[in-house]
Specification:
It contains 6 helices and 9 strands. With about 210 residues, it is an alpha/beta fold. The protein has one domain. Strands 1, 2, 3, 4, 5, 6, 7, 8 and 9 form a 9-stranded mixed beta sheet that branches. The longest helix has 18 residues. It is globular and about 55 Å long.
């Protein structure tokens, strides 16, 4: 008998994600070069827009918790619009339903996620920052599960997991995965949103 479980209940830790999805982390520098230098240059106009987005986030964050929907409206959608990712040849879909058959087990994981998917290869997964100390790392196990719903595991799949303040990129391919550093808006005087936009540009260029 096949058992159907919600992704968020079946996978709550990185160890569970690795075991159930048969995924192994890799530190091979050639596996995920897309988030590392050299990266595409940004124009002064692009930097100005990214500075505005950063200040907008800080303005809303001053009131406390920011929901996934608000992060989408004030940060992610404007970022995608600015990068031209809403228009051809790209196509964005939201609130994707996924179903994952666990290998060698009579178990199916399913769920509907507040995510934006670009050309089926770049997932943008939004996480609500609920309280002090909440980490974007907590979203990685479910993100890996959703990425594994792709029917072609040999094809590289990318994800950006974000709370609006913190950003981590993921890549999966052939039962391996790797992650980038965590980019945060509050790390230094430089706007790390520049690096996020640059990495997104490079990832998108890899499947155009």
């Amino acid at each position: 008998m096949t058992l159907t479980l919600a992704v968020t209940k079946a996978i709550t830790s990185l160890k569970e994600a690795q075991a159930k999805l048969h995924l192994s982390p890799t530190t091979n520098p050639t596996f995920f070069p897309e988030w590392q230098f050299p990266l595409p240059e940004l124009t002064p106009a692009e930097k100005k827009t990214l500075d505005q987005l950063k200040q907008r986030y800080l303005y809303y964050a001053a009131d406390g918790s920011i929901s996934e929907g608000t992060v989408n409206f004030i940060m992610i959608s404007p970022l995608l619009e600015h990068l031209g990712l809403f228009d051809a040849p790209y196509k964005v879909r939201s609130e994707k339903y996924v179903q994952i058959q666990i290998q060698n087990e009579e178990e199916i994981l399913e769920g509907r996620i507040d995510a934006l998917v670009i050309k089926e290869q770049l997932w943008i997964i939004l996480i609500e920052s609920k309280h002090y100390g909440f980490s974007v790392l907590q979203g990685i196990p479910q993100a890996l599960a959703y990425m594994q719903s792709d029917p072609e595991p040999s094809k590289p799949i990318f994800a950006l997991v974000t709370t609006g303040e913190d950003y981590i990129f993921l890549k999966t391919q052939d039962n391996h995965y790797a992650q980038s550093y965590k980019f945060t808006l509050l790390s230094d005087d430089a706007n790390n949103l520049y690096r996020v936009a640059q990495v997104m540009k490079r990832i998108v260029s890899s499947f155009t």
